[in-house]
Automatic annotation (TrEMBL):
Coiled coil: none annotated. Pfam families: SWIM. Keywords: Metal-binding, Zinc, Zinc-finger. Residues 408-447 form the SWIM-type domain. PROSITE patterns: ZF_SWIM. This is Zinc finger SWIM domain protein.
Length: 455
């Protein structure tokens, strides 16, 4: 897994005054509501439900170090934390990038001072895990979050964690996830007792189960039916087990499916006192979010970069980004606002919260090196256009792409959207993992001169 490089400079080392229970953090740059600052701080205070919060943080850390496809424990990776002025969001992807975990510590779970709003990523290593595992009952848990470090102070000491680079696959996963989860709807809500029974009854295999709402619970179905939710690899929900005794409810989200639907992603929200933990699962255990290709349509729009610059200037670490309000303020139509959010997502700058059905703003603490570098199919499509090998048929309903030893054909709708391609990628996935480079190239070509011949 490739990691983004980022350099840090500290004014002084971080320090912990254990007798006085005071934590001093050295920070190294970050983006805040006031713009870039060299040494910002975001939050200092306590978590009001310390044991539940500790278990939640451990669950996010557990996902970050787990590989569910070809199971193994990987090196600990760096969860992302965002402070939006009302809550703290801790996020991580699994090592295989097929599971996304997010712990939201809501206003009722925090007691302290918000010093600023912004985002950082943190290394949760073994000493911190050991400190969190010792939290019991009402043991005090003081938390101070800076732009480049996380410090947790427990009853028996303090542990300071330094930041490490964020894996590039995570960046791609963040981009894909906000596009994939935006169409999700609430499919079922289970009270705590039913949630415990359901999760303890699920098989530990990797197969795709279809879960159908049935009263106050979910039942398994052998095939997809309207209203069902896909659950690929139920063992990927095992990370919820340590939190079940704190649970108040379980909510399940997914896209619309019908008879004959292929596996789709799903989200599982465990409501906790003052918090919620959301796990989003990829459509199959073998698939990581970083390769789904859902963001490609948004990135391929010609005007998306300029739109993203405008929309990026309007979001301000709001707990929920109102797309209608962004459309009003920017003067852009709603589809272009959503495309711009897709572009911002490629830089890790927005996410989507299924629990609130709204986007939220985050700023990862480094600059992404461009959308196309992180999406090889889009780079390939632009290369095909640059090589002038894409031709539109008379009428614009078909495009041909000539490569050295053969020709691919792409079918296009009257609006210029790709309906299919003769390449092996499309034959294998049929658009369920994003479009192939030939389809993207055909769509780009159609936008430039649909029905008007070739350049």
């Amino acid at each position: 897994m490739v990691a983004m490089t980022h350099s840090y400079r500290y004014l002084r080392p971080s320090a912990v005054d254990t007798p006085g229970r005071r934590v001093g953090l050295a920070t190294s740059g970050g983006t805040t509501s006031r713009g870039p600052l060299p040494h910002p701080r975001f939050f200092s205070g306590t978590l009001t439900r310390p044991e539940a919060a500790a278990r939640g943080l451990l669950s996010v850390a557990a996902v970050a170090r787990t590989r569910y496809f070809r199971p193994s424990l990987d090196a600990l990776r760096d969860p992302v934390v965002t402070c939006d002025g009302q809550r703290l969001r801790f996020e991580s992807f699994s090592a295989c990038c097929g599971v996304h975990a997010r712990l939201d510590v809501l206003p009722g779970g925090l007691d302290g001072e918000v010093l600023d709003r912004g985002t950082t990523n943190v290394d949760v290593n073994d000493p911190l895990r050991e400190a969190l595992a010792r939290v019991r009952g009402e043991d005090p848990l003081r938390l101070s979050v800076g732009a480049d470090q996380l410090t947790v102070t427990t009853a028996d000491g303090a542990v300071v964690e330094k930041k490490v680079p964020l894996p590039e696959r995570w960046l791609r996963g963040f981009a894909e996830l906000q596009v994939i989860s935006a169409p999700f709807d609430l499919r079922a809500e289970l009270p705590a007792a039913e949630a415990v029974r359901l999760l303890r009854s699920l098989p530990a295999g990797t197969e795709v189960l279809w879960m159908v709402p049935a009263g106050r619970t979910l039942r398994r179905s052998a095939r997809p039916v309207p209203g069902a939710v896909a659950l690929a690899g139920a063992r990927r929900l095992e990370v919820l087990a340590p939190l079940l005794r704190f649970a108040r409810a379980l909510r399940v989200y997914g896209p619309t499916v019908g008879a004959g639907s292929l596996p789709v992603a799903s989200a599982w929200e465990l409501e906790l006192p003052g918090m919620r933990l959301v796990l989003t699962l990829s459509p199959e255990v073998t698939r990581g979010f970083s390769g789904e290709g859902a963001v490609l349509d948004a990135l391929a729009a010609d005007e998306v970069e300029a739109d993203a610059e405008l929309i990026g200037a309007l979001v301000d670490f709001e707990p929920a980004v109102d797309t209608g309000e962004l459309a009003r303020l920017s003067g852009l139509p709603l589809p272009r606002v959503k495309a711009a959010l897709g572009q911002l997502g490629t830089a890790g700058r927005v996410g989507y919260d299924v629990a609130e059905a709204a986007y939220f703003h985050r700023e990862l603490p480094y600059d992404a090196a461009g959308a196309e570098r992180l999406n090889p199919r889009l780079r390939g499509a632009r290369a095909l256009l640059a090589d002038d090998v894409v031709r539109l048929a008379e009428g614009g309903d078909t495009a041909t792409i000539a490569v050295p030893d053969h020709v691919h054909r792409v079918r296009l709708s009257p609006q210029g959207a790709a309906l299919g391609c003769t390449c092996p990628w499309w034959s294998r996935y049929r658009g369920t993992r994003g479009k192939c480079k030939h389809a993207l190239a055909a769509e780009l070509r159609a936008r430039r001169g649909r029905g008007g011949g070739n350049d």
